[in-house]
Amino acid sequence: MFLDWIEKLNFLEHNPETSVFLKFPTTTRKVIAFEVCRVLLDEKIAAHELDNCAHLRVILECVGQSFGLPMEAAVIIDHAVQLYRKWLTDEDAQPHALKADEQAFYKDMFKHMSLLFYAGTSREESRSAKQGEKDIQSHTKLCLDVLDIFQQSSRVMGHRFTSDTWETVLKIILGCCDFLLATPEDTLPIAKLLASRLLEVLFELWLRSRNADDIMWAHLKGLVMNWRHRLPTVHQWSATTLALTQNVVHLLYGPPVGTSSVQIILTSSGSGTTIKGLSSDYVYYAWYRTLHLLGDLESIPDSINYFEAQKGVSSLTRCLLSVDEGLHAKLPDATSSCLAPDGNTILRILGPWLLDAINSEVTGYENGKAAALESLCRIFSSRPNTQFSKSFLACFYRGVHNALVTGTNLLLSVVLRNATSLFQCEFEGLQMLIPAFIHGLERVLLAGAVELEGTNTTSVILRRACIKIIGCLICLPHHFKGVKFASLSTPHSHASLPPVITFADMAPHISEILLAGLHTENDDENRQMWMWTTCMYIFEVVAENALYAHVFITKLLKEIRSITWSVPVAQTALVILSELSALHPLLGEDEHDCSTAIKVVNTLCQFIDKQMLSTNKNVLEVLCVEALICLQKWLVVGQWLPYFPDIQEMVLSVLDVSVTGKFDPDRRAQTYHMPTNSIHQAGDLLFLALFQHFGNFPTQVGPSSLSSLVSEHSLTTREQLPPQAVQCFLFNRTLLSTIQHHTSGDENPELKVTAIARNNGGRFAWEATLKYFPHQLADAEELSSPVEPEDIPIPYTNPNSKLNINKLGSEEFVKSLTAFWTDADKRLHETVLLQAKIVAQSTQKRVQEIHGGDSAASFVCHQPTRDLLPAQDPTSARLFLTHLGFLSLGNRGVFSELGLNQSGTPPEALLKLLDDQCQRQCASASIFFIPHGATDHEILSYSGPGPKAYQHFVENVGWPVKLSTHKGFSGNLRQCSMITPYAPYVATLNEEVIFQVASHVASGSSEESEVKRQLLASSPISVLWCVDAAAPIPGFLKSCPLLIRISPLPSQLYRVRITFQQSATKNFVGPILDDMVLSRHLLSYAVQRTTVNAIVAHGDVVTKPTSLRTALIDDAAEQSDVFQSFPHFVTHRFVGTADSLGSSDPDRIASSSEGAN
């Protein structure tokens, strides 16, 4: 007894000696089956008592016929199912007679259960509609139970099945599937409910049987072709082929590639099964057979099923492409002699389905075509080293061209989203697609947003992909210039732009796309990418099209002025403006005509002034600091600032606001907006840049040093001066030391003062020559008569006039001062007047003491002789400090002498400690050359010169400096033995970077190799020159925060990858974005600027000296032994004694006192 459909398929033949009970009346059959099942399930007859095979056959005939009863007997059928489950899955519960001829009994029971899958009107005769629905539910449940028996018995008892039993079981389940699934979709309701489970059990049993019979596989394929209109068929095929493919790659490449067993997981239902123990030969055979079960996918009648089938092919594509990642992650002891599948191999397996799909002209199957396009783009983009077959390339190019030019919006979006890494591969003939890509980009970016029907892709993701594609095209117009494209029928999108016939014709299209994209973009991340891509494009074309740079700068200034962008976008815009300041000489401007620089400075000053009123301190700090840095870049570039006094006044006003704050213009608010500490520091740095470096960077000693090279020690050693010649002062977070010495090489040497100032910006020195006295020394007799100094006039008083000191303290004199004040002023300044009276009285008393009570004494200015001013005399230092304004009344509270600190440390030690600190943000960047297939050890030990392109890059990424004489930051290179004495170095006003080239560092012994590894791996930024674009990241660089990977392309262009190893979010340091293609002349500069910007953007991995230097100065102020009283300070440090002046002349002593007071 079995399902008649199985016999119609010529799988099995009915035995006429069986099925006798099927002819009995239904009521009789019910009674027979019920009673037999009840007795056996209640175990009223023990299993060992059923030891006769003939008796067992009769019992099976009684029970088996119940599977053909109508659904009103569902309870009886369920008893039969339980009995068969017991005997087929529990070996201990089987009757002894069954074990005597188990294979025959197994086959009979499976045949009997097939009767349950019959679905027709006979099961629902004389039944109501409501009852019929209930019967369908009961029928479905019973069928699922039977399928579970098939599955469990194959798992538990399958090892005991003979090949003939397996073949019978497979034919039975295959016939049941065909009976239900071959029918039209809506014919049998139960077929839809059972389809997924039927197919799951069928494929599991088929693989567990290890059937390798070609006839059986032909039966399977022939029947599956009739089930393709049902979606579960496609789902099961996809899941099974993926499971077999994963097991195949595991067998070929070993762990961790693929899976060690066949793990079939249905994504639609989440159910799955694992089949272990299959031989490798059978896995290969079953994989190939299963792969082709669906036949030609183009003949699938339903578009949804076709889409799901192509999705299944896509999953196979991802599995084969992931072999590379698995091989890179293999354990050290895992070995494999197999190469990962290249592009041609994958296309020979899956290409017929994929290439046919993208070139098919059948309408209504766009979703499936889109899936095929996505898979093909992934295959070609991820296999840049494959020499693809020309037939594959031609089919792929044709499909992509059609999708870009005439395809639906869905196909267009799929190509653009998945072709972001296509042009980096430079396959043969790929450039012929550029006009089509330009047309597609214009469809998306210039003609409005594309409606992305049938996909989850958003316009933000699509536009981001467009930006990446443009980043690969910006260097092509200048690189290839007049080279013509192969003729393809690409429509001309915009009449205002020339058709793209040559590479040079791309330039106006790219310019228009970049500006339009930035104008219409509303996503923050995309805006930043648009700006950086445009910045790189300007670097490429500024020499030929400076006007475009002006337009872009104007666009950025407009947006900054309106403050419509978010904080990250506005910050990026300011950084890009800073980058563009380097192009000032190329913008066609000079010091007299610099409209762009003036426009930038004017806008930034207004922006800072407006932002200082912001109540959001975080926003205020970020934007103002970045704006001040940008302002610094544009002010120091060129020498245009002195010609524009109004701009100078505006800049000084902004400096005042950034350092001291600003009142709210709304007087009712009565709010004073103080700058944050970061803004204050940025303002200080801007002032220092203007005061100390305007027109003086790079300095005469080069950009490696911002500070003056002269120091107190070098000067005192050269001039043979005693340590007392150095006096140290503290003025408003500035350490100022003065050294007095004479000019040499002159008959009449002059007294000079060298002042060395140290602040958070560095160390800076000035030399001043005092010219208060004539060159000719006066005779001794001339000292008795008053003389007037030459060259520089003495302010405030005539030296020949006599001033009656007695009148200074008189009441009449004090009252004359108050005559100019109002009553309010008198009350307000009462304390000041009282203090003035006290000072006047004190002065009068002192004069009387000096002149022996002669109240009519007057002061006469005498000219001292040269020998009365020794080097250690403080008079010249006093005069110098007075001229600088340090001793003015307004500065007396912030000026003091620096003495021993609380721990007894002299000022010299503090000065040396401060000089040892960096003056700019400093970082090292390592450069590695990675040959093809090199191991980590080979990369570290490589010491060759490398190809010419690599040498050119190393020579131009920075200035070659000789480490033995280099004054700037050198990292730890001086601790290593170098093959070459030079290293690339770059410095700006605010940053320093030393490039540690791995091939320049010796690594002969094991100790040298370890030192080299530690040195290079510790750099926060690493640049990798990869001969193979697919080369993995070396193991010793896995923790490097930022990696810049350069891969040379056949066209002498360069692919650059940016990888943030430890960043949770995407960061844009610019100007290089990830996966850009750059020309040779721009590569070195772009990598250099990206490295410098990374130092600024990721300050946690570099030295920040500004705050450290400020902290050292503040500590010195707190711990220094300073005088609390300014008069006391002046008396002890600036008033010489009679002995020090060389005479006891009271007039000379009085003159010194007058200067002090």
Topology summary:
Layout: H1 4-8, H2 26-41, H3 53-64, H4 74-89, H5 96-100, H6 102-114, H7 129-156, H8 163-181, H9 189-208, H10 214-224, H11 231-253, E1 262-265, E2 272-275, H12 280-291, H13 303-321, H14 323-328, H15 343-358, H16 366-382, H17 390-405, H18 409-418, H19 434-445, H20 459-473, H21 476-480, H22 506-520, H23 524-541, H24 546-562, H25 567-580, H26 595-611, H27 617-636, H28 645-660, E3 662-663, E4 672-673, H29 677-693, H30 712-719, E5 726-731, E6 735-742, E7 751-759, E8 762-769, H31 811-818, H32 823-828, H33 830-850, H34 875-883, E9 895-897, H35 907-915, E10 921-930, H36 936-941, H37 948-956, E11 959-962, E12 982-987, E13 991-997, H38 1006-1017, E14 1021-1026, E15 1042-1048, E16 1054-1060, E17 1076-1078, H39 1080-1097, H40 1105-1119, H41 1126-1134, H42 1138-1141, H43 1146-1156
Parallel strand pairs: 10-13, 10-14, 14-15
Antiparallel strand pairs: 1-2, 3-4, 5-6, 5-9, 6-7, 7-8, 11-12, 12-13, 15-16, 16-17
Helix pairs in contact: 2-3, 2-4, 4-7, 6-8, 7-9, 8-9, 9-11, 11-12, 11-13, 13-15, 13-16, 15-16, 15-17, 16-18, 17-18, 18-20, 19-22, 20-23, 22-23, 23-24, 23-25, 24-25, 24-26, 25-27, 26-27, 26-28, 27-29, 28-29, 37-39
